[in-house]
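S.,

Sequence below, as promised.
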Amino acid sequence: MKVCIIGAGKVGLEIAKRVSQDDNDVVLIDRNGDKLEAIQEKLDVLTVKGNGGTSQIINSSLVTESDMLVAVTSSDEINIIACMKAKKKGVAKTVARVRDPDYAYDVLASKAEWGIDLLINPEYAAATEIAQQLTLFLPTHTEQFGDGKILLAEIAVDDVKINIINKKLLELDFFPESTRVVAISRKGEMLIPSGNDELLSGDRMFVVGNLKNISMLCYRLKGRKRRVQNVMILGGGRIGYYLASKLDSMGIKAKIVERDAEKCEELAERLPNVLVLKADGTDIDFLQDENIKDTDGFVAVTGFDEENLLISLLAKQMGAKQVVAKVSRPSYAAMVERLGVDHAVSPRLITVSEIVRFIRGGRLLNMFLLPSGQAEVVEIIVQKGSRLANKTLEKAGIPNGVIIGAILRKHKAIIPEGSEVIKEKDRLVVFSLGNYLQKVEALAGSGG
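The prediction came back faster than expected:
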């Protein structure tokens, strides 16, 4: 498949990297020639200097002969125009990143008229993710697969009721049946463990299992989670706005803390049921005056990763029950493990996950990029004629760096052993390091 990406920023670069690893032909267009030269040295992609919204670029064979166009420049207008023009030129699928709330609403209401097949609003997607984590009944970050029947839980080993530090995985006899530790995040690196691996302070383990057993494990390790009734949001930007609006619609009291007076006025006008405070949310006296110790949820979504991480840590130490920080840099996401922040949310990784899943198409039912960006978890279907079908896991030729953590078969969740026979139409939840995933997808595909 030929994919044309307009915009070589951090999102465009990450998409190009992952899509090119899937053996697709990738064209990357950007105005910045120096940036493109640096990219050309790292990735096997064709780079073109130019304005992706102009007819000169859109009418060129680079675009018209593409199967898909992805517009992720910093300009909503260029992204929309590029998709509209490309669609008229016969490009089959188009994707646009649109961040402005008014634009996003208008385009989402009539995507077909705008010539856009997938619209992604990173800030809205991040707000949705944060709201889900705050209100989820389980006391830890989880991702759902297999129509909600399979869960992947992220558990910080320092933040549990039972001492599991310096214990080998095979010694953890309190784990329910049909659960498996598929990965450990340690000092920013992702590891696929064996039973003899020990858990160390600062580790975060990723455990897969069915809904019942993951719930049981989380309650044993962390206790039951109280219902969120109030949330303080630091930062009145787009994520803060979307999140406050979403929480308000769920009957949760939200307050936004923002330094900028003009932004406060706009937020108060748009969100009549939300308390908007003009204040410095990093001030300890202010947090104490606002009874941070009685806050069910504290969310830091300013434009600065460092500020979000540090104030989230402070809020946690002052008694906030759940703490979420927005981070953009993968290296900072890894710091969450050591700082004690409950969740890190990256609009960039959410955007990349959604767009890459769309590009890969029907092969992927679901996709989740881990916060560090070093690993991904996907859900794929074993097609008729696949080389995986009717083979045991141990003889299926699964590459190193890959674990099939769970199987959904006829609505039943299975945590497979090596002797488990894979069947056609099985839905596999696959954990992958590096760029091994396309090999598994090829095995699972028809005639793979």
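The domain at 126-131+229-345 is CATH 3.40.50.720 (Rossmann fold).

Coffee later?
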